[in-house]
Amino acid sequence: MVKVNIKGLSMRYEKKYILDDLNLDIHQGELLVILGESGCGKTTLLKILAGIIEPETGSIHLDNQDITNYPPQKRKVGYVPQAQVLFPHMDVEHNVKFGLEARKLSTDVIEEKLKWVTELMQIDDLLSRYPREISGGQKQRVALARAMAIEPDILLLDEPLSSIDASGREALALTIRRIQKETETTTVYVTHSSDEARLISDRVAVMYDGKVQQIGRLLDIDHNPKNYLIAKIMGTSNVWPVLYMSDNDKGSLITLSIGDIQLHEKLKTKISGIRIKPSSFSINTSERLSEKKIIFHGIIKSIIEQDEDNVRIVVDVKNAPSEYIKVDCSKEDIKIEPKTNTELTLEVDPSEVVLF
């Protein structure tokens, strides 16, 4: 197991910083998920760690050893790029052996490691097949086996599930997690999917604007995102950016894309966004509206049955094209049989609004 320390890493593409003074510590033996939207610098970071490209500034230390200028072959890093890069003219066995043979290990050692890693990845029955003869999920297992065969100090995985069909993604993600735990390999896993992060991470580092903006356990970030953008990247339900803020005699008025929200206190600091939990909404079935509640009018567009008694309703907001609200409630609470295209009124207490 190794720890990784990244300090002041910067990299530009066409005069724009894709990484901007990035700092990151990766713990020994952990699976760290780098989570962010396309173009935020995730893949660039992996390529710099792998030695494929050089940063303009900054340093990388593995267990206090500076490897910033080491070539890839000297780093003992296992790298699995997003595209499944298998040698089409080689069968599975020789694809997996490739890195071992390049290191000029003895035949006995190579065969021993081949047996270990192919059993670990559950591809020992595919050794004589060629890449064209196996599925996408199997190809990715071969690519992972090739990276793991050299017993890397650090394993780098770039969107490893992106080319896998939906039915196979969870199984492969859990396989990666199992193997990472068994081998205690320090692993950096890049993805744009918060669902993958929830499934396998020890910690999550959220990236945008070329920096790690927040890092920690997934539950901690889920419950306390630093700002609207982080909440959005985490896939949090019912988050909206603040378009405008003003004070009035009642408190602070916040303008969102779904409408205005009146808070009964004046905010002392500027906020970038808000969140309202799906469970915080209630459906108003009377004709009277409370002046103390925040009111939204909408139309039911989708109904997802959670269990026998509870549903999640997706509500299109009136006068706000393309905006919707997710509402969790029991069938008993709504006192109507929920149907699509039914108009309804939602209300929420201002104290339930989470501010970023």
Brief synopsis:
By secondary structure, this protein is an alpha+beta fold. It has 9 helices and 21 strands.
Question: What would you note in describing this structure?
Answer:
The chain starts with a strand and ends with a strand. The protein has helices spanning 42-50, 92-102, 107-120, 136-149, 166-183, 194-200, 218-223, 228-233, 331-334; strands at 4-13, 16-26, 31-35, 57-62, 65-66, 77-80, 154-158, 186-191, 203-208, 211-216, 239-241, 244-248, 251-256, 259-263, 273-275, 282-284, 294-305, 310-317, 324-330, 343-348, 354-355. With 356 residues, it is an alpha+beta fold. β12 (244-248) and β13 form a beta hairpin. The strands form 5 sheets. A 6-stranded mixed β-sheet has the order 6-7-8-3-9-10, sandwiched between helices. Strands 16-20-17-18-19 form a 5-stranded antiparallel β-sheet. It folds into 2 domains: 4-233, P-loop containing nucleotide triphosphate hydrolases (Rossmann fold, 3-Layer(aba) Sandwich), CATH 3.40.50; 240-355, Nucleic acid-binding proteins (OB fold (Dihydrolipoamide Acetyltransferase, E2P), Beta Barrel), CATH 2.40.50.140.
Q: Helicity level, as a percent range?
A: 25-40%
Give the CATH class of the largest domain: Alpha Beta
CATH topology of the largest domain: Rossmann fold
Number of strands: 21
